[in-house]
Amino acid sequence: MKRFDELRDLVMSLEGDFQKFYDKKNQAAGTRVRKGMQELKNLSQTIRVEVQDIKNKG
Fold first, then answer.
1. Smallest Cα–Cα separation from 35: which of 8, 10, 58, 56?
2. Closest Cα partner for 21 from 34, 8, 11?
3. How do the pLDDT tens digits run along the chain, 58 residues long?
4. DSSP of 11-45, one letter per residue?
5. Which among 48, 50, 16 is positioned nearest to 33, based on CA atoms?
6. Angle at CA of residue 24, ends 28 and 34, nearest 5°
7. Do residues 10 and 50 lie in contact, with contact meaning Cβ atoms separated by under 8 Å?
8. Per-residue confidence (pLDDT) for residue 19, from 0 to 100
9. pLDDT value at position 35?
10. Degrees, nearest 5: CA angle 31-35-38
11. Closest CA relative to residue 26, chosen from 34, 18, 14
12. How far is CA 56 from the centre of its chain?
């Protein structure tokens, strides 16, 4: 569940930048969104591999 908490916290931390980018067209916020989405992708892949490893062991 620790990984899920990390995932949720990361998504929630991006909310303000999403609003700034889409509502106010703030370009710097768009850069932060892209960076955050890359982190989300990497974390998701890490979780995916971890789940697969646990599944295969058990």
1. 10
2. 34
3. 899 999 999 999 999 999 999 999 999 999 999 999 999 999 999 999 999 999 999 7
4. HHHTHHHHHHHHHH--HHHHHHHHHHHHHHHHHHH
5. 16
6. 35
7. no
8. 98
9. 98
10. 140
11. 18
12. 25
